[in-house]
Amino acid sequence: MANPANNRVADSVRDAFIAALLVAVLGFFFLALRTDIAPGGLALSTRWGLWFASIAIVFGVRLALNLLVFNRDTPVGSGAGAGLARAAARLPDMSGWVNWAMLAAAVALPFFIMTFFPGQQRQYIDLSILILTYVMLGWGLNIVVGLAGLLDLGYVAFYALGAYSFALLSTHFEFIGFWTALPLAGILAAFWGVILGFPVLRLRGDYLAIVTLAFGEIIRVVLLNWYEFTGGPNGISGIPKPTFFGLEFARGEGGFADYFGIPFSTIHRFVYLYFIILILAVVTHLVTMRLRRLPIGRAWEALREDEIACRSLGINTTNTKLTAFAIGAMFGGFAGSFFATRQGFVSPESFTFIESAIILAIVVLGGLGSQVGVVIASIIMIGGMEMLRNLGFLSQIFGPDFDPVQYRMLIFGLAMVLIMVWKPRGLIASREPSVIYKQKKRIGADMVAQGEGH
Amino acid sequence: MEYFVQQLINGLTLGSIYGLIAIGYTMVYGIIGMINFAHGDIFMIGAFIALAMFLILTSVLGFAFLPVVLLIVLIVSMVFTSAWGWTVERLAYRPLRGSFRLAPLITAIGMSILLQNFVRVSQGARVKPLPPQIQGGVTLFEGNTETGAIVVQLSYMQLIIIVTTVVLMAGFTLLINKTALGRAQRACEQDRRMAALLGVNVDRTISLTFVMGAALAAVAGLMFLLLYGVIDFYIGFLAGIKAFTAAVLGGIGSLPGAMLGGLLIGLIEVFWSGYFTVEYKDVAAFSILAIVLIFLPSGLLGKPEVEKV
Fold first, then answer.
1. How far is CA A434 from CA A145, A148, A444, A445, B108, in A?
2. Which of A434, A444, B15, B97 has the greatest number of beta carbons closer than 10 A?
3. Residue among A31, A398, A417 with most chain B CBs within 10 A, to mutate
């Protein structure tokens, strides 16, 4: 007791010991034991090495964290992370030239990849397309969750509706191509957004989340079981690729390369797809930014902060919520038809709840309502997950059975929990209200929500 | 008629399992007002622990007397699953207490993904079949229809599930109504700040709520394992949503409501599969969830939520 430094070391060791003990208990049935199907039923095998290694790692990491990171005056191991959020640096919302710089970088990206990574250009451009798809979905969902404050766990339903609308339209009607189907898919998705939004108007918060999740699952189950219309689990294949003003990205006469007199390359189609999704994403962003300044956008933000106050001020909450649902759904539908044309194939497997969770995670981890946060979160989450595929060298350390791709979702779930605990308001925590009084002191809406500025 | 009675028995069995999981949702929602999205996965963890423990006892240690084996499996699974429940609360929810409303829901979804994939990676993605352990049953009555004789049977397995559920529910109701812990829980449910001022250890009470919910989920996990004989890492998602539906249907925050809701959901699912189509049985459960929340947000036995401005 005499020496506080000694005391802290002792506390840290004890805390690390408790953590290790907990891992021993929790991991016993999962790390030390493994059940597998064997010829005579189920067989139990033991993996003591893995178990002891995890215990040791947790002990070491926890001890190091206690001694080096959680170096605070409060007792070790109590309420870690809660105080970090407020202390987190608040990045200014990027505006002006930063936006233009980012756009320029996005436009230059495929050419950069083609010049510097000719061997892996297809892979990298594909990854960029994937990230941009999630950026667009994130921005679309941001209208519903970030601006209007309606937690939607079934956003993937609109993505699915967009994809299936395009797939069905294009396979049933010869004359419908990507560009004609795109607005139709968006309108259909928006229409469904209103239909699904209407009954849930009275719900708020968690209940709304669960009902939207239920709607998302209902749509998936229907897609899965309605064989005659949707092809059931086999999905729909043979969806046409987008054309460049009628020019197809094919080898030979009348193709894109032939028309412009450049040598044919399969990469042209990927670059074209990249620019389509880039344009779609930018349109989503611009529409969102404009809407935020319109009365409807202000009504969304007011609704997010306080629904009762909103109603008292005469805002029609029904219309406000429905427009948020419809516009968010519309962008989901656009992204869905892009997904269908990119894959050339859709099946219900692509539209599971996990997909909704990923999009929501991108929005929330990026910082609710922050446009630039969505971009950063998409790059980290999607790019990071794809990077795991390249970690094949780790199998030399952990043995040939080690497959890093298996760990994608595990790490994803862990990241979701850790980032949320570390920064509950997302990576870009500052969410400036679109309309503020310029004079006097500025009290952001999010600060009020955190208990300041009353 | 015979078919109806048989489906009724099947529905009550399934409903008991849902009811046990639903209690975990309803208690947590009652006390901290969040949907513990990972609770379904705690149920799945419980089923896996029960399976491993069962194999240790039967194939490694060679016990053969089934009732004792099942009792040990039940206790071990409850204890270890409780540890999981406690850890999830400690790591993912407690640091966010007092944060904005959606934060714990997001970590709960993250936890759910994490637990599912942890089990998937550590135990493999393939299903784990366990041959039926408890066979036989009581024939209630037989009936003749045009298609042939139908035997209405209450299997011992179903009997065990229903009896265990009733016993656990009785014990649990006593715990909530009579003990100091139950009193603390009810106090926290009504007003957490006031309870803290009056000397109730709120954090500890919330932790114990998660522990109790996890223990009941472990019982449900063992029953699911014995009843269906097949588990995988994904069983928690659907069972969790249905159990949550049950909790909402019964009135969230109400324990008898959770049980009643569980039984109703079990019955609806079984009758829907029996008389309509099996493919759309999940749609039935989800639609009920939506309909109840929209038209009867406080559920059958719940108290309407009063909003204070």
1. 16, 13, 10, 10, 30
2. B15
3. A417
Q: How far is CA A6 from CA A1, A9, A11, A13, B253, in A?
A: 8, 5, 9, 11, 47
Q: For residue A337, with 0-12 CB atoms within 10 Å meaning exposed, 13-18 middle and 19 or more buried, which class applies? A: buried
Q: What is the pTM of this model?
A: 0.84
DSSP B308: P
B300 touches chain A (CB under 8 A): no
Among A243, A267, A270, A239, smallest CA distance to A255 is for A243
Let me know whether A54 and A180 are in one domain.
no
Whether residue A225 is found in the same domain as residue A356 = yes
The per-residue pLDDT for range A234-262, each reduced to its tens digit, is: 888 878 877 777 777 776 666 777 777 77
A37, β-bridge pairs: A42
Rounded Cα–Cα distance for residues A72 and A444 (Å)? 29
* Cβ separation B290–A215 shorter than 8 A: yes
Contact B254, B302 (CB under 8 A): yes
- Are B208 and B32 a contacting pair, CB within 8 Å? no
> Mean pLDDT score of chain B, rounded to an integer?
86
Whether residues A424 and B83 touch (CB distance < 8 A) is answered with no
User: Concatenated DSSP letters for B189-226?
Assistant: HH-HHHHHHTT--HHHHHHHHHHHHHHHHHHHHHHHHH
Classify B2-295 by CATH class: mainly alpha
| CA dist list (Å): A104 to A31, A100, A108, A110 | 48, 6, 6, 11
Structural domains in chain A (count): 2
* Segment B213-231, tens digit of pLDDT: 999 999 999 999 998 888 9
CB A19 within 8 A of CB A62: yes
B:208-267 residues touching chain A, CB 8 A cutoff: 237, 241, 244-245, 248
Structural domain span for residue A348 = 97-422
Contact A268, A257 (CB under 8 A): yes
Q: State the angle between helix axes of A317-343 and A267-293 in degrees (0 to 180), rounded to the nearest 10.
A: 170
End-to-end Cα spacing for chain A? 42
Taking 70 as the pLDDT cut, the residues of chain A under it are 1-5, 70-96, 204, 251-254, 391-404, 429-454
Q: Is residue A427 part of a domain?
A: no
Distance, C-alpha B187 to centroid of its chain = 24
| Same domain (yes/no): A50, A107 | no
Same domain, A146 and A73: no
